Structures are given as C-alpha cells and as structure tokens.
C-alpha cells in the first residue's frame, strides 16, 4: 500500500470519527434542550377544582415531568383577590416546571396564545333555580368565552369543558368558536370513568390499575351510562372479563350504574362540598392521555363531537370510548351493544338533544 492510499484511508477514518462525535454532541444537545413552555388556561381558577388543579399542572401531572408550563388563570372580578392568592401560592411552591403565571379577570388576556384551555368556570345550579335559568346564564358565559378563544388562543388550542352542563356548554363553545376544529373541543367524563374503575376495583378487591376499558356513554349527568360489558381485569392467569369475574349481572346493571350516576351527590352529602380533588385529577388524566396518548390496548371515556358512531346523532357532544395518539382522539369502533345498553345509550342521547334545544332557545 503506497503513501497516497494510506493518506486517503486516514482521511476517511478521521472524517468518520469526526462525524460520529458531531452526532453524539447533537444528541446531547438535543437532550439538554428544554421544551417550549405550553400555555394552559384555567377558567374559574379561584374555585375548589382550580385550587386542587394548579399544583398538579405545575408539577407535570398533566403534561409530563419534562414539559414546562405557563399557567393562565381567569376568574370573575369578585374573585380577583382570591385569584391573586392562588398566584402567590404557585410562586411560593417553587415548581421547577412553572415558567410563569397570569392571573386576570380579563378574558382576552387570559386566552391570548393559550395551547390548552380547561373551562372550569360556570354558574352552578343552586336551590330554587330552574334548569333553564342555569342553562341561559351558562350559554352566555360560553358564548363570550368561545369568542375570546376564537380570536386569541393558539390555532391548535385544545379545549376541555368541565363546568356543568359540561356536554352542552362544550356544544355552545363549539358553535361560537368555528375556527377551533370540532376534534379540539371536548368535555369531561373522565371523572365518571375513573369512578367506575374504582368501584369495579373495590368490588373485586384488585388494584385499580388492573382494571381497564370501562365505557361511560352519553351525558355527564344522572342519565350517563357506565358500561362494564367490555371491561377486563389483569389477573395472574391473564385478562378476564369483568362480568365473568363479578358474576353478578344484577349488581352491574343496577347498583353499579346508579352509584356512578349519583357519586357526585353522595360526595356533596358527605363532604358538604362538591368533588374537587378527584375532578382535578380527572382533568389531568383527560389532557395527559389526549396529548401524550393512551396505553396500547386501553381506551378511556371522553365527551367528544359525535360523528354518528353507535347511532348517536352527529354533532352532539357525547361521551364515547376513545383511544388517543399523536394528540388526536379516535372513537373505538365495533363494540357489541346489547338491548339493555342500547336503551341506556339512547336515553342519555335524548337528554342531550333536549339540552341542545333548550340552549338554543336561550340564545333565541
């Protein structure tokens, strides 16, 4: 081998080593680079759920342990002082992922450039109030907030409506924020889904993480249908059907359903206050799975815009079983629906159709 050939080989080897180290340095640099902060709006932020939710968002429970966040908090003028108190506590918490806090009563400032909007704010039904009174006031709130999100939120903003009536509030928001794709407007039924998982786990004396694929169909109301027909439990001998393991159809078709439907009222009776901790946890679960994806072979319940699946009127915000991947949800198809389930699913759909009509009449 002559000197020219040796020199050529040396150059090739040197270039290869140089390229290798460049790649390694780039990988290290990429690992060290911090993600851009995600701006998360929470309306009604001075309330109970907001107070429970804020530290969860700031700690990465919602978006992951490596995702910085900027929290935008919105509430009404009467709650401005309490809102400032929550901001102080967030600062005092010294959360490593928290890159900023906006506390405001100005809906435009609150909505500016937000990537995720969690809508907790709304008028709750109180003693002596008619259903139409609650609906008419919430319709106006969600119409105004829809307009602000439409004009000022990020183009790909994901919206989760929590305030009741959650499905219909989400429907109104969808109507008045037409530039936000229907796929990006959802409502919370994950709390009901989690409650159902918890009841099955308690009944079977297993860990809740071993139970999966409950379905909550329909409205987040007392007509919702928690369905265990497709659920399974991980056992030492493999996955087993919930129905087979419980072996009590009467319980699954009666007490189990009514317990989930009335769980919120039971908590109010016991605690003298509505669900806050469990609701905040469910909000984080909903957003986390939506953004980061559901585990393979597992679905969750989300209130989403119906595409006609399972015979549900298109356009209704209805709770379906969904899987999520790459920030998109998809309705699980092909589940077998028996006569009992069909009646329950149609009943809650009919309530949503009535609510839609009532909401539009309030706009009228």
UniProtKB/TrEMBL annotation:
Domain Lactate/malate dehydrogenase C-terminal residue range list: 189-357
Pfam families documented for this protein: Ldh_1_C, Ldh_1_N
Binding-site residues for substrate, renumbered to this chain: 125, 131, 164, 195
InterPro entries tied to this protein: L-lactate/malate_DH (IPR001557), Lactate/malate_DH_C (IPR022383), Lactate/malate_DH_N (IPR001236), Lactate_DH/Glyco_Ohase_4_C (IPR015955), Malate_DH_AS (IPR001252), Malate_DH_NAD-dep_euk (IPR011274), Malate_DH_type2 (IPR010945), NAD(P)-bd_dom_sf (IPR036291)
Amino-acid positions noted as binding NAD(+) in the UniProt annotation, renumbered to this chain: 44-50, 75, 138, 162-164
Active site: 220
Catalysis performed (reactions): (S)-malate + NAD(+) = oxaloacetate + NADH + H(+)
Keyword NADP applies: no
GO biological processes: malate metabolic process; tricarboxylic acid cycle
Superkingdom of this protein's organism: Eukaryota
Keywords: NAD, Oxidoreductase, Tricarboxylic acid cycle
Boundaries of every Lactate/malate dehydrogenase N-terminal domain copy: 38-185
Enzyme Commission designation: 1.1.1.37
A single MF term (Gene Ontology): L-malate dehydrogenase (NAD+) activity
Similarity comment: Belongs to the LDH/MDH superfamily. MDH type 2 family.
NCBIfam families the UniProt entry points to: MalateDH-SF1 (TIGR01759), MDH_euk_cyt (TIGR01758), PRK05442.1 (NF003916)
Protein name: Malate dehydrogenase
Species whose genome carries this gene: Rhodamnia argentea
Lineage: Eukaryota, Viridiplantae, Streptophyta, Embryophyta, Tracheophyta
């Amino acid at each position: 081998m002559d000197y020219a050939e040796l020199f050529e080989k040396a150059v090739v080897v040197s270039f290869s080593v140089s390229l290798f180290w460049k790649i390694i340095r780039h990988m290290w640099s990429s690992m060290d680079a911090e993600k851009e902060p995600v701006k998360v709006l929470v309306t009604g932020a001075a309330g109970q759920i907001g107070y429970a939710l804020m530290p969860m968002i700031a700690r990465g429970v919602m978006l992951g342990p490596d995702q910085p966040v900027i929290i935008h908090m919105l509430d009404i003028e009467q709650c401005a002082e309490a809102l400032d108190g929550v901001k102080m506590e967030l600062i005092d918490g010294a959360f490593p992922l928290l890159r900023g806090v906006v506390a405001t009563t100005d809906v435009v400032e609150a909505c500016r450039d937000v990537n995720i909007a969690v809508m907790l704010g709304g008028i709750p039904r109180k003693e002596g109030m008619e259903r139409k009174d609650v609906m008419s006031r919430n319709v106006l709130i969600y119409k105004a907030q829809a307009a602000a999100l439409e004009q000022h939120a990020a183009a790909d903003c994901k919206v989760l409506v929590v305030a009741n009536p959650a499905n219909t509030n989400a429907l109104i928001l969808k109507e008045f924020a037409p530039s936000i794709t229907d796929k990006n407007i959802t409502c919370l039924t994950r709390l009901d889904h989690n409650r159902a998982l918890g009841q099955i786990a308690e009944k079977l004396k297993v860990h809740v993480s071993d139970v999966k694929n409950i379905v909550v169909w329909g409205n987040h109301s007392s007509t919702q249908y928690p369905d265990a027909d497709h659920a399974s439990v991980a056992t030492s001998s493999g996955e087993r059907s919930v129905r087979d393991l419980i072996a009590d159809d009467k319980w699954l078709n009666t007490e189990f359903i009514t317990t989930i439907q009335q769980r919120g009222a039971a908590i109010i009776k016991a605690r003298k206050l509505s669900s806050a901790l469990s609701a905040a946890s469910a909000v984080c679960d909903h957003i986390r799975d939506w953004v980061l994806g559901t585990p393979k072979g597992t679905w969750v319940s989300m209130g989403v815009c119906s595409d006609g699946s399972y015979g549900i009127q298109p356009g209704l915000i209805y709770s379906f079983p969904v899987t999520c991947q790459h920030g998109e949800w998809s309705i699980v198809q092909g589940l077998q629906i028996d006569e009992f389930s069909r009646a329950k699913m149609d009943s809650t759909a009919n309530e949503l159709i009535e609510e839609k009509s009532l909401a539009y009449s309030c706009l009228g």
